[in-house]
């Protein structure tokens, strides 16, 4: 119980500090807007897509697999431990076996996590070559690309240490590391941009690259110190080691049996086969999922100009603020929670508890996101004019308004897919990959229609295409969750998630009155201006939010 309370406090601290670090990053990007035009922001979005692609392919499937399927001792070891504990030297040898089990688990996780930087190398260089070959008109794009590759390598080198902190539920360590790294990124980015502007030097997108390198370096140092401490306490190495050290301990007559079991359990003596197999089955899904996540950036690069890319990057930055600040940290924590709660063997009380937690989380997400979708669009134009300038407001207001309506779909999909990734078997993951491949085709078709056929602005068209894709994923994940709980005799009632008729009516009426805020302001002779428009609409929105 004490361990659960400590983990809960750590998770709460993690979410709080992640909120703060993401808010700090947003504020830094907001300050950088004064130094950027739309094409330059578009190129920075391409660099960000490169970085996220390398990181995602190198570590995502391994992270999920390690969380879902921790290392378990071989049958021969378990039998040996039970025999030892029943003998006269039970207590001493049982403690030794417990130490061996902890050491084996930690070393196996470290070995697996070192695959991430190797995979990162395999992805980073070919992808960088493809991006370098593309024509670029911005200053120092190739130099910035090299810095982003270095930053990805530094972050992936921290993965073994991160895996240890996650395995031992050191959420406080993770929160502090990510907060310090985010602060370093913001400081490096702003300082380099300020120095360049002061000296009249055009450095293009290099400030973003310097900030990303600082982030990776600080993350490696912080996680490295914490990981070495855990390894020293539990008696294993932070570098890859053959698992024979843990396997060959025990009675002499059992050595051959243990070595045979080790050959069946560890690939090449290093990598735990069940977790490796699960990660492999998730890799195909990860490729499709990443295309669906970053496909908007790739498509806008192929089908539109750098100016349109910059507009969409700005809209994603503002529109996705709630997702980055709140949804993503909660989804990561809920994935870890459901993975542990529903891990095999699952106690009878776990499925009802998981269903209740999932329902509460979905309800919370809808309560937060639906009012934003209904009431926020009228704020788009004056708010952009206030925080980013009138030029950005003219280009991006309609796209930001459309993105507000997209937020509830982001919220639902995020938590549903977090649950699916926590409980799906390898066969179910492969089935999901097939469906995700179909959804990617739907997304590509919707993008072509929205960008080339329908009379929509490029950024608005991309929001529409993403909404179509997100609806497909929500339907599949919702059907999976319903079937999962039905198999375990748990009723999954979704009626409580549907907004009431009164709430819908309040949102519709509130949207109308908020949109009339500037008109009422003009009728009172109080003048225009972006600030006054936001103030007037905010005053109109307060009673609506109170009613909701």
Automatic annotation (TrEMBL):
Annotated Basic and acidic residues bias: 72-82
Subcellular location(s) of the protein: Endoplasmic reticulum membrane
Lineage: superkingdom: Eukaryota
Region Disordered, residue ranges: 69-98
Keyword annotations from UniProtKB, A to Z: Endoplasmic reticulum, Membrane, Transmembrane, Transmembrane helix, Transport
Pathway(s) annotated for this protein in UniProt: Protein modification; protein glycosylation
Listed InterPro entries: RFT1
Main location: endoplasmic reticulum
Membrane-spanning intervals of the chain: 112-133, 209-231, 364-388, 400-421, 433-451, 463-485, 497-514, 520-547
Membrane topology per record: Multi-pass membrane protein
GO BP: any one term: glycolipid translocation
Recorded GO CC terms: endoplasmic reticulum membrane
Functional summary from the UniProt entry: Intramembrane glycolipid transporter that operates in the biosynthetic pathway of dolichol-linked oligosaccharides, the glycan precursors employed in protein asparagine (N)-glycosylation. The sequential addition of sugars to dolichol pyrophosphate produces dolichol-linked oligosaccharides containing fourteen sugars, including two GlcNAcs, nine mannoses and three glucoses. Once assembled, the oligosaccharide is transferred from the lipid to nascent proteins by oligosaccharyltransferases.
Entry's family note: Belongs to the RFT1 family.
Name of protein: Man(5)GlcNAc(2)-PP-dolichol translocation protein RFT1
Originating organism: Cephalotrichum gorgonifer
